[in-house]
Q: What sequence folds into this?
């Protein structure tokens, strides 16, 4: 399971509940964080190379790209490069949002990378033709979530500024769903709720991604007994004490 940082842990915690008998290797590509500002071709190349090494070393039954910024860019390239490996991606939950909205006003909160992707535009065109979808890019919410998870503190004014463009009012109708289209954001959702100008449904796709992964895995008996502890790998090298503790809290050895 891979993300640029701690965001994918929001998916890991759901996956653990559904697959307590599986072994997880969590990869935080912190040397590449944040993915949100990367140039597309360079990030795609990095992800294909990184997954190549991880697959060779850990021989997983399945790979979960627990990152919207990476999935909307590189899922096709990853599947083409490693055709025998099942990949589960994390892409903005635009379809469920379009099905659930009552006001017809949906906002998608994501990194600048996810907002500019053709993949995201195609999802809107395919599933949300009858809604008005407001794409909101945030340059710093993922970093705020990283800090919050490590130090337990977040600048609420910065969270407020980040979510503010999500809230739109037109002809008496208001945004009623905000799609959390970056896996870091669910860690901040309580602060988002607190700072929101009115209540909305904050859509977190983590459970759906974990269920998708479960549905693609062979039954535990067919896979054999997983060997070893759950691991966290950080591409930036040995983690500091705070990060090590955080990973331990999620059941991962470093
Ligand atoms: N967690 C990542 C996502 O889901 C992105 C954070 C970053 O910018 O690296 O999009």
A:
């Amino acid at each position: 399971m891979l993300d640029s940082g701690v965001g994918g842990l929001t998916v890991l915690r759901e996956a653990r509940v559904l697959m307590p008998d599986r072994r997880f290797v969590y990869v935080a590509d912190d040397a590449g964080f944040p993915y949100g500002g990367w140039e597309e071709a360079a990030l795609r190349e990095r992800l294909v190379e990184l997954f190549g090494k991880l697959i060779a070393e850990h021989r997983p039954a399945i790979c979960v790209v627990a990152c919207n910024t990476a999935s909307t860019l590189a899922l096709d390239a990853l599947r083409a490069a490693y055709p025998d490996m099942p990949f589960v991606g994390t892409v903005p939950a635009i379809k469920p949002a379009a099905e659930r909205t009552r006001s017809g006003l949906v906002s998608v909160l994501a990194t600048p990378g996810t907002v500019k992707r053709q993949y995201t535009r195609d999802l809107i065109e395919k599933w949300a033709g009858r809604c008005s979808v407001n794409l909101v890019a945030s340059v710093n919410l993922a970093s705020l979530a990283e800090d919050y998870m490590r130090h337990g503190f977040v600048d609420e004014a910065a969270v407020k500024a980040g979510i503010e463009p999500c809230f739109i009012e037109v002809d008496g109708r208001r945004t009623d769903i905000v799609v959390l289209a970056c896996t870091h954001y669910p860690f901040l959702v309580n602060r988002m709720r607190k700072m929101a100008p009115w209540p909305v449904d904050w859509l977190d796709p983590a459970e759906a991604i974990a269920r998708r992964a479960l549905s693609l895995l062979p039954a535990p008996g067919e896979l054999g007994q997983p060997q070893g502890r759950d691991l966290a790998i950080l591409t930036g090298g040995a983690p500091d004490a705070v990060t090590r503790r955080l990973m331990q809290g999620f059941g991962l050895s470093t």
Observations:
- The radius of gyration is 18 Å.
- The first strand starts at residue 2 and ends at 3.
